[in-house]
Specification:
Elements (H helix, E strand, L loop, with lengths): L27 E4 L2 E3 L15 H14 L3 H14 L4 H13 L3 H14 L5 H12 L3 H14 L4 H13 L3 H14 L4 H13 L3 H11 L6 H14 L3 H14 L4 H13 L3 H13 L5 H13 L3 H14 L4 H9 L2
Antiparallel strand pairs: 1-2
Helix pairs in contact: 1-2, 2-3, 3-4, 4-5, 5-6, 6-7, 7-8, 8-9, 9-10, 9-11, 10-11, 11-12, 12-13, 13-14, 13-15, 14-15, 15-16, 16-17
Length: 335
């Protein structure tokens, strides 16, 4: 399973700790090679004087937003010389080092940030991303679990923990954490999609349909979610609903060959050879030939006595997959 499904998720503002600037947000890399800069609120209460470390942090973030990473790093390092335990500064510099690929430096900065503020989930989350990149999956899972314990309603660590558990084959645990993520963020459509796919794989088709339906709140998920919803309906012996789902997938993505093949298979099961031929033509128009579908069409036409059509599909089957011996002998029998 690839990480391409992971999306940048807006983070909630961290509650201001005693003595810290209200409105301060952490800098949080959300996944390897994809980072989100939450920024720092510029407004300050009138009666409060901005400290030197806060001024340097604000200047560094301005430089970073303008694309001047070296200047941002210089300002952050200057700030840490005076205030070595300032959490936001440690995280900001950790973000820069993380983005530069200096993972050892970034990890050390995140570790220091976690020690400076034991209630902050972000440094542990960021460290988990580094551990994941380095192949230390078990350690990353442990770190994310800690982050979730610190902040149980933050969707980012909940989702990433679920994703890592799924990628490790821990399906039941992943389902639990995906549910936690969707409870924390009901519009986290990617989590609904992953949850639905897992539920289908585990045979919980009715639950999967509900999750996949929620995933379709994001149009980008519709082709994949609708296709798998169709599979759920097939497993529940609901062919009409399955057909509607496969058609919805094709409407959302006309090049969705899996859905076209599913419609063809469904048409064959229903004895509708004309519809099966139509879907087969659509697949071939996309430059693909399905050997199994061609073979099934050949056998169906042969059973109807349509030998020319049978021979045509047998040949396509053999050309696409020469190992189909039954297709080869079918060609020979109609030569």
């Amino acid at each position: 399973m690839s990480a391409q499904s992971a999306r940048v998720i807006p983070l909630n503002q961290k509650p201001a700790a005693a003595g810290s600037a209200p409105g301060t947000r952490y800098l949080t890399p959300l996944e390897p090679d994809s980072f989100q800069l939450e920024g720092v609120a510029r407004s300050e209460p009138a009666e409060r004087t901005t400290t030197a470390v806060e001024s340097l942090l604000a200047e560094a973030l301005d430089a970073l937003e303008k694309g001047n990473a070296p200047e941002a790093a210089r300002l952050l390092e200057q700030s840490l010389r005076n205030s070595p335990n300032h959490t936001e500064t440690l995280l900001a510099l950790g973000y820069l080092r993380h983005e530069e690929g200096k993972l050892d430096d970034a990890s050390d900065l995140y570790r220091r940030a976690a020690l400076s503020d034991t209630s902050a989930w972000q440094p542990r989350y960021n460290q988990a991303l580094i551990l994941e990149t380095q192949g230390e999956t078990a350690e990353a899972i442990a770190m994310l679990t800690h982050a979730c314990a610190i902040s149980p309603s933050e969707p980012a660590p909940l989702y990433r923990l679920a994703w890592l558990l799924e990628s490790s084959g821990c399906d039941s645990e992943a389902v639990y954490w995906y549910k936690r993520a969707t409870t924390a963020a009901p519009n986290l459509f990617e989590a609904w999609l992953r949850l639905g796919l897992l539920q289908l794989r585990m045979g919980a088709c009715a639950e999967a349909i509900e999750s996949l339906d929620r995933a379709m709140g994001d149009d980008a998920n519709l082709p994949l979610a609708a296709y798998h919803m169709g599979l759920c309906h097939l497993n529940l012996a609901q062919p009409e609903l399955a057909q509607q789902a496969f058609e919805a997938s094709c409407s959302a993505e006309p090049t969705a060959t899996d859905s076209l093949l599913a419609l063809a298979a469904l048409a064959l099961a229903q004895g509708d050879l004309d519809a099966a031929e139509r879907h087969d033509r659509a697949v071939r128009a996309l430059g693909q030939v399905s050997a199994p579908l061609s073979l099934r069409l050949a056998q169906a036409w042969q059973a109807c006595g349509e030998n020319e059509l049978a021979r045509l599909h047998f040949r396509r089957a053999v050309q696409a997959d020469p190992s189909l011996a039954v297709g080869y002998f079918g060609v020979q029998s109609h030569s």
